[in-house]
Amino acid sequence: MITTKNAIIRLSRYKSALARLRNLGFVKVFSDNLADAVGVTAAQVRKDFSMFAITGHRRGGYQTDALIEKLNSLLGKDSLQKVIVVGCGNIGSALMKYKSFEQEGIKIAAGFDTSGSFVKKSSEVPILSMDELQSFVSKHKIHIGVIAVPEAVAQAVLDQMVAAGIKGVLNFAPIRLRAPENIVINNVNLVLELESVIYFTRAVEKNPQALVEGG
Amino acid sequence: MITTKNAIIRLSRYKSALARLRNLGFVKVFSDNLADAVGVTAAQVRKDFSMFAITGHRRGGYQTDALIEKLNSLLGKDSLQKVIVVGCGNIGSALMKYKSFEQEGIKIAAGFDTSGSFVKKSSEVPILSMDELQSFVSKHKIHIGVIAVPEAVAQAVLDQMVAAGIKGVLNFAPIRLRAPENIVINNVNLVLELESVIYFTRAVEKNPQALVEGG
DNA sequence: TAGATTGTTAATCGATTAACAATC
DNA sequence: TAGATTGTTAATCGATTAACAATC
Questions:
Q1: How far is residue A174's CA from residue A123's CA, in Å, rounded to a whole number?
Q2: pLDDT at B183 over 90
Q3: pLDDT at position A78, please?
Q4: Inside any domain, residue B209
Q5: Which tens digit of pLDDT belongs to each residue from A111-159?
Q6: Which parts of B26-174 fold into alpha helices (H)?
Q7: Residue A18 to residues A27, A30, B53, B98, B192: CA-CA distances in angstroms?
Q8: Mean pLDDT over residues A203-209, rounded?
Q9: Mean pLDDT across the stretch B100-107?
Q10: Residues of A with CB below 8 A from B8's CB?
Q11: Per the CB < 8 Å rule, is B186 touching A202?
């Protein structure tokens, strides 16, 4: 359901806006505050909350702390999430060092790569050989993985990950991966994101009233 | 218009599928072939093409080469696109080395950073100080920039980029940026993408019929 | 010609928004 | 109480899909 997907993304945005509002001293927030902060309508905020059975107070809005906690638990952020990264090239190693993940309760447990030169068990996030994927994943009970390998090997890597027990994947390879239907795949295509900026920038330059709102 | 945005993203996908089909020897393709390759309906393909005045032959489908060329020109890929990257931390430097951009006719002309230690004019993609942003952008007539700086300084960086003449931005900072309405901004939030995988993976584990299709 | 595929219109589907009764 | 905000229903809006006439 695509509805749910967009709604979940908005919940994440509400959560991040709430953290900022809390820092500003907001003890309670109204749907209107959140709407402004995130750039949606107040009705959208209330509709989203009602879909996930989040309730407030008829005249007093929502308690900031309670709301953040509820969103965290909904989004699976009540416990540390362990994730592996397969492919330790440019993108993969950037993700392994990316501070924001840890701040959000996401821990990169290990990186994996075929080419021996990358393998480095001693670094902060160990980089292991693909041979060790299966045992590492089952030993550490990891369900989530990131694919940051070249397009040509992405499908084979996904198959190995699924065989090892991975259930959810964030894929940076610019290709449609095939997997059993109980496997969750989310694609990020950086070239496509930049191409879309290029297209719309040109479109606006040619025809300034072609207003566009970014995703 | 959000329609247009989704349509453009699909055009990009068609283009990338077409390159693969051409390698397989397809001289002409049908809307049905593209639909299968990209995972949409044939009607969607034809509708998208009609929106952008791309026509085929009533019984002979579309000429692969001509179609690729048309899509490239629509997407602004007929000339080399020069882009700058501001912020040379993990994500920024990964993007500067990312091979797929060059393969798609996107050239990272320079990176920019405040902290002096990063500055390195001699490397393949020069890394310059923020002081040089304005002159570099106007000298090289660059319209597109990537923001890969920490959240706290993202708005200030955007303001400088806009002042320097940048018209379109791909933003990796997890925050809603404010800009004049003729500036195109596209946001990529990596934490949010991973969080969404975590959420849906949990949802499917709890309730296997909660089928989800990735973006 | 008969068959197949496009291009487009109309129908459907789903998501967002507006409005308002409930109520604190 | 009067005023304000939620939670939800109904209305709107827009995107996708189905269907089919045109035609190669």
A1: 29
A2: yes
A3: 85
A4: no
A5: 999 977 667 776 789 999 999 999 999 999 999 999 999 999 999 999 9
A6: 31-38, 42-51, 64-74, 90-97, 99-103, 133-139, 151-164
A7: 10, 11, 44, 34, 15
A8: 79
A9: 94
A10: 196, 199-200
A11: no
Identify the domain boundary among B74, B100, B132. B74
Tokens for A125, please give them. Answer: 């996030």
pLDDT of residue A211: 55
* H or E segment and range at residue A125: none
Name the strands in the sheet holding B127-129, side by side, starting at the edge strand that comes first in the sequence.
B127-129, B106-113, B81-86, B144-147, B168-171, B184-187
Question: Is residue A58's beta carbon less than 7 angstroms from any atom in nucleic acid strand C?
Answer: yes
Kindly report which listed range (A44-58, B54-68, B105-119) carries the lowest average pLDDT score: B105-119
- Domain-located, residue A196: no
The stretch B34-46 carries a mean pLDDT of 97
The two structure tokens encoding residue B99: 């091979």
Q: Choosing among A142, A195, A200, which should be mutated to test the B contact, i.e. which has the most B CBs within 10 A?
A: A195
| Run of H or E residues at B147 | strand B144-147
Is B32 (CB) below 7 Å from strand C?
Answer: yes
Shared domain for A89 and A180, answered yes or no, is: yes
Angstrom CA distances, B149 to A30, A37, A201, B118, stand at 31, 21, 21, 13
Q: Which of B170, B185, B201 comes nearest A194 by C-beta?
A: B170
The single-letter DSSP state of residue A86 is: E
Count up the domains in chain B and report the number: 2
Please give the residue range of the domain that contains residue A22: 5-74
pLDDT on residue A207: 76
**Nearest CA-CA partner of A126 in A112, A116, A139, A137:** A112
Q: Which of B143, B174, B202 sits opposite A100 (nearest CB)?
A: B174
| Amino acid whose CA is nearest the C1' of C6 | B58
- B4 CA to D7 C1' in angstroms comes to 33
Do A107 and A160 fall within a single domain? yes
User: Has residue A48 been placed in a domain?
Assistant: yes
Q: Among A2, A12, A199, select the one facing B195 at the smallest CB separation.
A: A12
Assign residue A46 the CATH number of its domain: 1.10.10.10
Determine, yes or no, domain membership for B206.
Answer: no
Q: A6-15, A32-41, A121-130, B139-148: which range is least confident on average?
A: A121-130
Q: What are phi and psi of A62, to 5 degrees?
A: -125, 140
